[in-house]
Amino acid sequence: YKNTYAKPDFVITLTKYHYQLGKEKGSVKQMADALNERSYAHYIKGDLNASIEALKQSISLFEKINDTKNLLVIQSNLGSIYKEQKDYLKAFNSFNSSLKIIRELKLKTSEARILSEIGDIYSILDELDLAMEYFDESLTICVGRKISKQNQIGSIFLKKAEIYYKKKKYNLAKEYSKKAIIEFKDTSNKFDLSECYLLLAKVNKKLSQKTQALEYTNKALAINYEIDNNSKIIEAQIIKSYLLLGLKPTLAKNLAKESLQLLNSETSNEIKADLYNLLYECYKRSNQTNRALSMIEKYTVFRDSFQLEKNKILIIKETIKSQYEQKLQ
Asked: Rg (Cα) of the chain, in Å, rounded?
C-alpha cells in the first residue's frame, strides 16, 4: 500500500477488494491487514470516525488469531486517532501500554515511533522541553539503529520544528521544517509534507515574509486538495485569507466564505473560531456591519467552546504529569 499517503481514496477502494479476497480465502490476518490499512487511509483524509471504526474491526480480528505484534502496532494507531480526537489521556495511556510491551519485545522501530507520539502529546500540552526529550530519544534510536524510514525521521524533524515555532524560535522552526521536507520528498507521505509547508507558511507569516508565506500555503493547499483532507484545506485557506486581507480584501473574503461551506462536524472549534473571526474582519473592512456582528457572535460561541477544551486539557495535563512523576520515583 505505497499509495496510502498519496492516494487514500484509491487505497480505500483497494482494501475492500483485499478484505473480500481474504474472506474468501479464509485468511483472518489478510482481512485484519486490509481494515488496518483502510483505517489509515481514512486518517490521512481526516475522517477520524471512519478511521476508528475500521481500526476497531481490525483489532477484533487480530485478537481472534492472537497476533501480538500486529495488535501492538494497531493499539498505538488507535492512540494516534485518540490524539487527533483530542482525547489525550486515552492516547497517552494507549501509547504507554504499547511502549512497555514493545520494549520487552525489543521492537526498536516501533519504540522510536511511539516515543515520538508521546512527545507529540507533551508538545500539545505545552510541556515543550519534555516533548523535545522524547523526540531526541526517538531520533537517537532511528540514527543508532540505522532506521532508514524517511517518514519516521521526517516526522521527528517536523515535530521539533513545531516546538521551535511554539517557542518563537522561527529560524530553527524553518530549518527543521526544511529538513523534514527533504526526508518526505523521497516518500509518498504527502500528508506530513503538507504539514511542513503549512508550518513554513505560518513561520514566514510571523516573520512578515508574505510572499514566501503565500507560496508555502499554496503548496499545502494543492496537496490537501489532492488527498482530500477537508480540515487541512480549511486551515490553509484561513492562513491564505489572512495573508491576502491587506492587499486583496475581496479575494480574502471570498476565500473565507468558501471555507465556511467546508465546515463539518469534525472541524475543530479552534478552526471554526478562527474562521468566524476572519469573516468578521472581512465584513468590517467592507462596511457590512450587520454581517460583521453576526460573525463576531459566532466567533464568541466557538472561542468559548475552544476555551472549555483548553481548560479540560489543563486537567489532563496535570493527570499525565502526575503519572510521569510517579514513574520517576
From this structure: 21
